[in-house]
Amino acid sequence: xPYVGSSIPRVEDGRFLSGRGRYVADHQRPRxxxxxxxxxxxxxxxxxxxDTTAAQGVNGVVACVTGEMLTREARPLVAESRMRDYKxxxxxxxxxxxxxxxxxxxxxxxxxxxxxxxxxxxxxTVEWEPLPVLDEVQVAMAEGAPLVHEEAGTNxxxxxxxxxxxxxxxxxxxxxxxxxxxxxxxHAPLPMENRTCLAEFEPAGGRLVVWSSTQVPGMLRDAxxxxxxxxxxxxxxxxxxxxxGFGLKSAxxxxxxxxxxxxxxxxxxxxxxxxxxxxxxASTQSWDESIEAELALEADGRLRGxxxxxxxxxxxYSIYPWTASIxxxxxxxxxxxxxxxxxxxxxxxxxxxxxAPLGPYRGVGRPxxxxxxxxxxxxxxxxxxxxxxxxxxxxxIRPDELPYRSPSGVVWDSGSFAxxxxxxxARIGYDExxxxxxxxxxxVAGAAPPTPDDGGQxxxxxxxxxxxxxxxxxxxxxxxxxxxxxxxxxxSPGADISTGVEGxxxxxxxxxxxxxxxxxxxxxQGHETTLAQVVADELRVRMDDVRIVHGDTAQGPVGSxxxxxxxxxxxxxxxxxxxxxxxxxxxxxxxxLLEAAPDDLEMAQSAISVRGASERRVGLRAVARAAYAGLxxxxxxxxxxxxxxxxxxxxxxxxxxATHIAVVAVDPDTAGVSVLRYAVVEDGGRIINPLVxxxxxxxxxxxxxxxxxxxxxxxxxxxxxxASLMDYLVPTANEIPAVDVVHxxxxxxxxxxxxxxxxxxxxxxxxxxxxxxxADALAPLGIEISELPITPERLFRLLRAAQGKDRAR
Length: 809
Hints:
- A hairpin with a 5-residue loop joins strand 15 and strand 16.
- The chain has four domains: about 25-130 and about 195-280, Aldehyde Oxidoreductase, domain 3, CATH 3.90.1170; about 140-190 and about 285-375, 2-Layer Sandwich (Aldehyde Oxidoreductase, domain 4), CATH 3.30.365; about 390-480 and about 655-809, Aldehyde oxidase/xanthine dehydrogenase, molybdopterin binding domain (Aldehyde Oxidoreductase, domain 4, 2-Layer Sandwich), CATH 3.30.365; about 500-650, Aldehyde oxidase/xanthine dehydrogenase, molybdopterin binding domain (Aldehyde Oxidoreductase, domain 4, 2-Layer Sandwich).
- About 30% of the residues lie in helices and about 25% in strands.
């Protein structure tokens, strides 16, 4: 039985569940110093004077270092872009001259332990000159507004427009137009492990070793080499076990550069373990867009055109290496969705404010785009009296139109859009739910509903929790996403960084163990299981004989890291190429040992045998020993050893798609929303491990439900009001229903192995599905949802406004 396609339990879970994972915080080094950062309490202020005298007198404090002291040792981060109308900004390792957001690091205090370092931070005094605060994009875009970065000359750091067809003509004569101003509030990625970093400098050889909770060890290594002006071969970055990332850890941060620079400055090991408050203040945040969008429709529901204007609050700095453009450009790239859309114009603005920098988060722009487009579709359906599923059926890209070039220029190589919708409707019992919804609405209105059969009564009990005062809503969201992208389409358009290639090195040692090394870095995806399945199948060895090494720039080939749903596609593709080369050599050596022709051999379960004569066989260990025994044991002219390195570039990448359906109950008395049922049908290509893939989808749905109903970074005058988990609300097991996940095994025509990416899909579809379900529940009241998250307070205000309109009538 092949390993790929099997639900094999994750091999790495043994150490995690037994508490034997090794995270950065677990690493100890001789003579190690601990660092704590003094962070700005002001969103925008000039630094007049820093006095560290008292701090240096604190017991255990070794040194206090300011930004000015590090300027000669570490250059600032600058995220460059080839995109027109983009303004690059410098992000100093420690604040220089002024601070631009609350939480920006400005002084590093080193001590014998973290507690004394924190005491030293408390003893530093700073003389401030507060500056005008920019906490809203409208204020920041206004003429004469104070500048976050004076050298940029403007707070608008980027503009970009995608256009196809004649949008104005499409709207001019459209029978129906629906539109609104949508708001998706700022969000914190919130991985379980906060950002951490440990750096050790070896003065004798000039070698720098950095352990970091990063998704991108290769990118971090390159950035350290450039900013510290070190040869790349002297910089070694290790991403050990990493407790979640969700995109937050795909950026390179000033703290990582500062810790490395301090290690070199003091010639020892320096460690920083961020706490939850630092994470919520100073790590990148996500979304934060205002979108004005309109959809033009024909009388039969077919789409005529879409136009949108997106203003994105990118915060104080352009993040490295993705730039300030990554979120806004992804929104306008994916607004057209999986639909035939002849006319489109999307315009995006990225505006600097005095908030934490905006960065990638699971889905990167696509949750926002999906929310807007899917909401407009459902409003169009209500306007036309169509079922929400039917309006999608009429507009999906058809199989005979693939590959399909979207209005933003993205090419969809494949897609099972209608199939995913129909399968999801069947799984959740869509027609029955609509009947139940009608019954529930009649109960609320006081009418006598028709009596359903017993099955209907049971579904009603589950759906309405036995409460006639709860309103039932059903929401659909369909989307398409670009995954496994190669060199032709960078993850961040215009970003000055190569992100299209990934490599794999496979080595078989004398014991017959296969070590597969990657530049990828796992932060919960299960690489040690899934990549081993790919290697074992392609090399025809036992999975127990495969060991996966990842996240170590000294052991793996050159690679960028883990982001953009690329690991299975690029890592798996590179592993397949390397395994094929290695298997060919194994068969050649085995043929020599068995005195047979290579074409007469077959390999399975770490053994090679002659076809039709299974007694003539040799194990992989014997072949490996021969490979390293010298030329006398090998075919004439063959080089000793068993090792292969291959790189894979899928160039354009491949499309994944899914349909989500959510069932919610809305309590008008408490303005509470409960998600009762949830179904996802996803086309993620050839599935390596359904168990792991299902976990990815469910985890993404949980985060998407949080985005729809709970999670919001709240700022008041650019001060963070949600700097702890007492204030920043995340979903628990109580808020997440059982998620029914179906994988459509529809292989990509564009990638080796037929793999597609699925890591972000759950988060892309869930906010829109839940929002549409809430709007569907409240449709009789004329309430529409245009702002996320749908907190009880916001919902209460919508309900009260609707009741006021009723009384006025």
